[in-house]
Write a structure and sequence with these properties.
Number of strands of chain A: 13
Low-confidence stretches of chain A: 590-595
Helix content of chain A: 55-70%
Mean pLDDT of chain B: 85
Mean pLDDT of chain A: 86
Number of domains of chain A: 2
Number of helices of chain B: 21
Low-confidence stretches of chain B: none
CATH topology of the largest domain in chain B: Rossmann fold
Number of helices of chain A: 18
CATH superfamily of the largest domain in chain A: ABC transporter type 1, transmembrane domain
Distance between the termini of chain A: 49 Å
CATH superfamily of the largest domain in chain B: P-loop containing nucleotide triphosphate hydrolases
Largest sheet of chain B: 6 strands, mixed
Shape of chain A: elongated
CATH architecture of the largest domain in chain B: 3-Layer(aba) Sandwich
Largest sheet of chain A: 6 strands, mixed
Strand order of the largest sheet of chain B: 6-7-8-3-9-10
Oligomer: heterodimer
Structural class of chain A: alpha/beta
Radius of gyration of chain B: 35 Å
Helix content of chain B: 55-70%
CATH class of the largest domain in chain A: Mainly Alpha
Chain lengths: 595, 590
């Protein structure tokens, strides 16, 4: 089904959200109905006063009327507080429910599906889109009840007082929905354009701040200025148009009120001067006051139809965007418990294919590791190194693996291990170092359980202790996007320090040392075994030289193991590994590349 | 203290800060003095019309209910008032809208020009996110002061005051009471909406923390899944959600106060009017038409508070934006003005000489002190050194991107100090580590908007760097558009494009900061080949990360913390068995 028009998820999602709050929302509706009924009373009271003035009877006590007036408005004011609570706060609760639901769905789903989520879209999904759904249920629901009750009450009151003639007065208001429709159509388009332009301008500024050196030396500022100005020009035009459309609509509303008032006065005049009996009712001060007061109240409900349509469109689009998350399947978890430490891994004939791809990424691979061993995995881009490590990290579900002859961890079949427990004792570092927007200590120990001493020790083990001195607040310095910018090598060492703090018995490092120099690399690797001599390290790397004292090295090519053995053995074979090593020596980086 | 550092703190505690901030913005409005005066005149007309509406309504009602004499005169008066109000407020708003948008446009242009001229240090010290929020978002936050909402608020204020005056004329007692209520209402408006604004700031900061957490989550999904962080990651989000609930509740309650007070004020006003006027109509002090006029004035006085309270927040944001924009505009004094006008005729083979150079990013720590070095002309020099050794700074200095504190840099006989940047840059080409591909066609990416370069030259260069097949295989060839999301090029191909760009530009002096990204063997080979072609016959300075690149150099400079450890031809350095030799030795040991 076309995902752009598929709204099948919309009603179930809304129903699910409303369900726990049905009572309070119902109560809120009753309050709105009540408030709007109360709002009808003051104009009617004023009509009575007007009638008594016109007839010269003056048969009302103004003190009582004044008291009733005050009483009604105090009641309305108090009830408004209640409906704000019912609708605004409840709708926020629903928003929170929706956010929680989506967040848990993401985290409890299978990695292979969840990993295709993008940062930007997910953040806006969990902020703007959930807000759009909230607006639809909370504000939209409120407006709907409000509109319906007004549209029933006002014509009804007018009808009972002056009969069917009230329609004459309502003629101008019939134009509102059309005007509103026209307005929203134009203005929504312009708003979108304007915000897109602002986004483009932000991108340009970002480029400027990142590439300022190049732009200046290559003298590209003339071109950049022209582009910049172009964007600013269209932003100016767009914002001006928005202003003009707003202004026209405002004048349109003012004109309608003017017209309805003029009609009222003409009716009153003709009621007095001509003999048209059917106009007779208008020649009354009370009626004039009543009509003036009630017509003012009609503007907003007439406008709200179009607004409601916009709200529902936005909410539907938001739910459509959420559908990917709703379709995520929960992750599978095996039963059997793996007890720490992991002492053996044994893989034979492992086949793996990514969905939507034809070729095997892993094409009958075997792999063995046991306590205290350092295992290296070498291969070109696309050889299957990362995939193998991800599978070892249990990021791919057993059902996603095509087949295997044998896949045992501590002699337990891969399908049966309890992944939660297994992951607790493995430490996987992905190829791209991850730095959270948090303090250094928050980055190293995300659960906040590590003590200061432990953190400092891990920093030392990861060779980050000298870098630490440059941080203004030590381990409490904010790092990441909003804090201190780290170099590639520093980011890798943050990942490594995090890994050290995890107390794992299986370390899976995917090209984690690529930005480190040779000394640091050696030190870091040996520190793993200083912490835990029984640990297993599996290191994927481009650099054969890093693997000199490793127990076993697998050379992968196109998903197959083509060579295997320790460093000296592989060098003797003079095969692919040997060539890679020769190549590395020729092109090896000099010094660190932390720049 | 670094003047160029943008901080987030509001400098609100200073007295009359808003007025001072506005002074900075005033020049942008002053430019449109004439239009502003027209606006104010029109504004006067529309206000008179507005105030006249209820009054004329009272007259019309009196006529249409009593004898009907002169009804049409008064009816026309009523229509006139209304039309004046509608037409003049439209005109006044329209003029102000255009003027305000122009002023904002000029402000944006000024800020953009400022970005073009600020010293590099500004970009080193501020993250791009911060620069964006100052130069784009804060100007947008200011918009409310420059669009029709500003004048709407003014005219609402004028309507309230005018209506109070008119009301006082008809019934002094009513006018008096309503004035008191209005003052109280204004007091509550500022108190409650100010409170709500503060709560809103709290809510926004929590929302942005939550967004950043969600961003982290998606970013770090691999680690979160593999390390089983679920057990505390979800509770962490739930804790954020609790904070979210608490803070939004505060906002909603704060918001709710004013509408309720407003409703009660409306009730109070009507009951006061009824209490006073009912008997006055009876005793003939006021006519029944005037009674209706009074009722209308009451709604004219009280209704605008609804709109004003709705805009209150926007105005608060605008005030704080004004403060922040002031901060960035005040950097005008820091602009770099290139006073040197000298041109240069680069004589082939000119060396680049550093003579007794003194330089530091801040005044206390000098990176180079008495630095002397010669980069031979038309040869390739590789600079080797660890982080912080000063190699990047050296490049920045040759490009005159940073001012130095003492000594000189000379190209041939020309001192860089006398050279205009314009003249210098016409001879210099730079390749930085970031692979900068613009969002534009491949053609423009190659020729860098230099229209004198035709397609034939481009295809020659493409053939030279062996990128022609790839480009020809693209559907639109050179017209293919490169945007952020597209991945038509691999990292290696991007490097080739950048090298091709430099070949087309053909600079006499080339600065080449090698990208660190790892390449597969084939692309590595192509890039090395292209580099060799690029370096030939130019004064080239490379910051190399690969041995194979270093081996292209005829001259080596080994730097350590701003000092030359060793320099000279590679063969000689190997003979010397110094630092360079150690590097090579270190590698071949493995």
């Amino acid at each position: 089904m076309d995902s752009k028009t598929d709204n099948s998820l919309f009603i179930p999602v809304v129903k699910e959200l409303v369900k726990p709050y049905k009572k309070i929302l119902g109560f809120g509706c009753i309050i709105v109905v009540l408030i709007n009924a109360l709002e009808m009373i003051p104009p009617l009271l004023l009509k009575n006063l007007g009638d008594s003035i016109q007839s010269g009877a003056y048969n009302y006590d103004p003190r009582i009327y004044a008291a009733i007036f005050l009483g009604i408005y105090i009641a309305i004011g108090a009830l408004k507080l209640v409906w704000r609570y019912c609708f605004f706060i409840t709708s926020r609760y629903m928003e929170v429910d929706l956010k929680k639901n989506l967040f848990e769905k993401i985290l409890l789903s299978r990695f292979s599906k969840a990993s295709s989520l993008k940062v930007g879209t997910t953040v806006s999904l969990l902020s703007y889109d959930t807000n759009d759904v909230r607006m639809y249920i909370g504000i939209g629901g409120l407006i709907l009840i409000d509109t319906i009750t007004y549209l029933i009450y006002i014509p009804f009151v007018l009808y009972t007082i002056i009969g069917i003639k009230c329609l004459i007065l309502l003629i101008p208001f019939a134009l509102i929905p059309f005007g509103m429709h026209l307005y929203e159509k134009n203005v929504n388009f312009l708003y979108e354009k304007s915000s897109k332009l602002l986004g483009d301008i932000s991108d340009k500024v970002h480029e400027e701040s990142v590439g300022v050196k190049i732009f200046r030396v290559l003298r590209l500022q003339g071109v950049r200025r022209t582009k910049f100005r172009g964007l600013l020009d269209s932003l100016y035009e767009t914002n001006k148009s928005i202003g003009v459309v707003d202004l026209c609509f405002e004048s349109f509303l003012l004109s309608l009120i003017f017209m309805s008032r003029a009609i009222l006065f003409l009716c009153a005049y003709f009621a007095l001067t001509s003999n048209e009996m059917w106009l007779k009712d208008f020649a009354s001060l009370g009626v004039i006051i009543l009509v003036l007061k009630l017509l003012d109240k009609l503007i907003w409900p007439m406008m709200s139809f179009s607004y409601l349509a916009t709200l529902s469109e936005k909410a539907k689009a938001a739910v459509r965007r959420m559908s990917y998350i709703y379709e995520l399947e929960p992750a599978y978890k095996g039963e059997h418990k793996v007890f720490s430490p992991i002492h053996s891994i044994d893989v034979e004939d492992l086949y793996f294919t990514y969905p939507n791809e034809r070729n095997h990424v892993l094409d009958g691979i075997h792999f063995k590791a046991s306590q205290g061993q350092k295992i290296g995995i070498v291969g070109d881009v696309g050889a299957g190194k990362s995939t193998l490590l991800r599978i070892l990290a249990s990021l791919h579900q057993p059902s996603e693996i095509d087949s295997y002859g044998k896949f045992q961890i501590n002699e337990i079949d891969y399908r049966n291990i309890n992944y939660d427990l297994y992951r607790n004792i493995t430490s996987y570092i992905p190829q791209e170092s991850i730095v959270f927007n948090s303090t250094l200590s928050g980055n190293l120990s995300p659960n906040g359980k590590a003590t200061k001493e432990e953190i400092h020790a891990s920093l030392k083990d990861a060779c980050l202790d000298t870098d630490l001195k440059q941080l203004p607040k030590g381990i409490e310095t904010l790092i990441g996007e909003k804090g201190v910018n780290l170099s590639g090598g520093q980011r890798q060492r943050v990942s490594i320090a995090r890994s050290f703090l995890s107390n794992a018995s299986l370390y899976l490092w995917d090209d984690t040392i690529s930005a480190l120099d040779v000394e640091t690399e050696r030190k870091v690797v040996s520190n793993i075994f200083k912490l835990n001599p029984e640990a297993i390290l599996v290191l994927a790397t481009h650099r054969p030289s890093a693997l000199m004292d490793f127990d076993n090295i697998y050379i992968l090519m196109d998903g197959k193991v083509i060579e295997e053995g320790n460093f000296s053995k592989l060098m003797q074979i003079k095969g692919h590994f040997y060539n890679l090593f020769q190549y590395e020596v020729r092109t090896r980086e000099v010094g660190g590349i932390d720049e | 203290m670094n003047k160029l550092l943008l901080d987030d703190q509001d400098r609100k505690n200073e007295k009359f800060q808003a007025i001072n901030d506005f002074k900075v913005l005033w020049p942008y409005l002053k430019e449109f003095k004439f239009q502003l005066i027209v606006c104010i005149v029109l504004f006067g007309f529309s206000t008179v019309g507005t105030i006249g509406v209820p009054y004329s309504m009272g007259l019309v009602i009196d006529k249409s209910l009593t004898d009907g004499s002169n009804f049409w005169t008064y009816f026309l008066f009523f229509c006139g008032c209304y039309l004046i109000m509608i037409i003049f407020s439209f005109l006044q708003n329209y003029i102000f809208l255009k003027l305000g948008q122009r002023a904002l446009y000029n402000l944006r242009v000024d800020i953009q020009e400022l970005l073009f001229r600020l010293p590099l240090k500004f970009f080193d010290t501020n993250s791009s996110g911060k620069i964006i929020s100052r130069s784009v978002n804060d100007v947008t936050g200011l918009a409310v002061l420059f669009n029709s909402k500003f004048f709407s608020t003014m005219s609402e204020a004028a309507t309230i005051i005018g209506s109070l005056a008119a009301l006082t004329l008809i019934s002094p007692l009513c006018g008096g009471f309503l004035s008191i209520y209005t003052i109280l209402l204004i007091f509550f408006l500022f108190k409650f909406m100010g409170e709500a604004g503060k709560k809103m700031i709290g809510f926004r900061s929590i929302s942005s923390r939550i967004n950043s957490f969600v961003g982290d989550t998606v970013n770090g999904l691999e680690i979160i899944f593999a390390s089983n962080y679920h057990s505390f990651w979800i509770p962490k989000y739930l804790r954020f959600m609790r904070l979210f609930k608490v803070s939004i509740k505060r906002v909603i309650f704060a918001w709710a106060k004013f509408p309720t007070v407003h409703t009660i004020a409306i009730g109070l006003s009507y009951s006061t009017v009824i209490f006073i006027c009912y008997n006055q109509v009876q005793s003939g002090v006021i006519t029944s038409g005037q009674f209706v006029a009074i009722l209308t004035y009451v709604s004219f006085i009280l209704n605008p508070f609804h709109q004003i309270s709705g805009r209150f927040n926007e105005f608060q944001t605008a005030m704080s934006s004004m403060n922040k924009i002031n901060q960035i505009l005040s950097l005008k004094d820091e602009r770099e003005i290139d006073v040197s006008v000298g041109g240069m005729l680069l004589i082939p083979g000119s060396d680049i000489n550093f003579e007794n150079l003194k330089f530091g990013y801040d005044s206390e720590n000098a990176l180079f002190d008495g630095f002397n070095c010669t980069i031979p002309g038309e040869k390739t020099t590789a600079i080797i050194g660890r982080t912080g050794s000063g190699k990047t700074s050296l490049i920045g200095l040759i490009c005159k991107l940073y001012p130095w504190q003492g000594g000189d840099i000379k190209i041939g006989d020309f001192s860089l100090q006398d050279l205009s940047k314009e003249s210098l840059y016409s001879h210099v080409g730079v390749v930085t580590q970031q692979l900068f591909i613009f969002e534009d066609t491949i053609r423009e990416n190659l020729r860098l908007y230099d229209e004198s370069i035709d397609d034939e030259r481009i295809s020659n260069v493409l053939a030279e760097i062996k990128l022609d097949k790839k480009i020809n295989s693209l559907e639109k060839g050179l017209d293919s558009f490169f945007d952020k999301s597209s991945d038509i090029f691999s990292v290696g191909e991007k490097q080739l494009i950048i090298i091709g760009r430099m070949l087309l530009r053909d600079p006499k002096i080339l600065i080449f900061d090698e990208a660190t990204a790892s390449l597969d063997n084939h692309s590595e080979f192509l890039v090395q080949n292209a580099c060799q072609k690029l370096f030939r016959g130019r004064t080239t300075i490379i910051i190399a990360h690969r041995l194979s690149t270093i081996q292209m150099a005829q001259n080596i400079v080994v730097l350590d913390s701003g000092k030359i450890v060793e320099e000279g031809a590679p063969d000689k350095l190997i003979e010397n068995k110094g630092a360079y030799y150690d590097y090579l030795q270190f590698l071949s040991d493995e």
